[in-house]
Amino acid sequence: MTRSLKKGPYVDERLLAKIKGKKPIETGLIKTWARASQISPEMIGFMFGVHNGKSHLEVLVTEDMVGHRLGEFSPTKKFIRHGGKMQKELEQKKKEAEISAAKAAKSSTTDTKKK
Hints:
It is a single chain. The chain is about 30% helix and about 10% strand. By secondary structure, it is of the alpha+beta class. Strands 1-2-3 form a three-stranded mixed β-sheet, with no helix packed on it. It is elongated and about 70 Å long.
């Protein structure tokens, strides 16, 4: 559910104070834990370190991000991969293809050196 228009967007006051009167190029990484803060137009060009529960992930704010929350660009869960027999077979075929491509490249370079 969206925030009431009467209340306006939630932008963390401390974040606005940190970027007030500064240029995006001069300012380094701005660390924040305010994942719920909305991105305002004043934040465009700044680099934020948004905390994901373990570390700060770098987020460069662009025009497309205005209106979204900072937490949307700092995922809290790490996707490893889907497992299973089919996935293993696909990985094995890919590995074999890389090996054969490397052998072919190696043999073609040795052939050109012999000439």
